[in-house]
Amino acid sequence: MKIVMLGAPGAGKGTQAKMIAAKYGIPHISTGDIFRANIKNGTELGKKAKTYMDQGALVPDELTLELIMDRFQQADCADGYVLDGFPRTIPQAEALTKALAAEGGKLDFAINVEVPDENIVSRMAGRRACLSCGGTYHIVYNPTKQEGICDACGGELVLRDDDKPETVAKRLEVYHSQTQPLIDYYAGQGILKEVDGTKEVSEVFDDIAAILA
Length: 213
Ligand code: ADP
Ligand code: AMP
Fold this sequence. Notes:
Layout: E1 2-6, H1 13-24, E2 28-30, H2 31-40, H3 44-53, H4 61-72, E3 81-84, H5 90-102, E4 109-114, H6 117-126, E5 127-130, E6 136-138, E7 157-158, H7 165-179, H8 181-188, E8 192-196, H9 201-212
Parallel strand pairs: 1-3, 1-4, 2-3, 4-8
Antiparallel strand pairs: 5-6, 5-7
Helix pairs in contact: 1-9, 2-3, 4-5, 6-7
The structure holds adenosine-5'-diphosphate (ADP) and adenosine monophosphate.
Adenosine monophosphate is lined by residues 9, 30-32, 35, 52-53, 57-59, 64, 85-88, 92, 162, 171.
């Protein structure tokens, strides 16, 4: 099964993608997580990506596509994947459609997690991320057992630089201008499904599971 998660930054794509990955035994591929891992490891790719990410801008398509096409070659992608944060532009979506078609494949679902902008700022300000394992929590909506420590791996939790309110506003602007058009793109392919992302995490997941069943 090949799934794309759509939605504004902070809509809950990563939270749901991890649950989908666990239930269906497919990898969760987050381009944001891959960029952050590269930044942490001080790679050339990480250095390039950081300049864009810190400003709330998108990393250029060319760099992003190179990274994701390489990821698709790994053995764990053979039975599908759930993509989180990719594609984020029409050229990225077109490149994905083309790459899949070249091997006679296609996406099964594009799931749009709908959350109004008003809710996004508090979601992002309260988000805490584990830089070791990519775990995501929220200080109010999804707290860890021990404050500041990842439940999954014991790593230290941080407020991402790009989750600070001034950067969030920019990211929302970028989302509306460059990523939201993907909703129509996938509606045109007949694979768009919408879920209400303002519900509780488990309720959103029940709605997604009903779509995928
Ligand atoms: P995205 O991957 O779309 O950027 P995340 O999955 O990281 O979003 O979620 C953003 C923040 O909102 C996180 O702190 C997460 O714990 C929290 N969150 C996710 N889903 C919900 C929900 N349904 N209700 C309340 N908070 C949520
Ligand atoms: P995310 O973790 O999905 O919120 O992504 C964090 C940041 O990484 C974004 O604000 C972008 O700067 C960058 N990024 C992640 N995925 C992509 C993508 N598909 N295209 C361009 N930039 C991306």
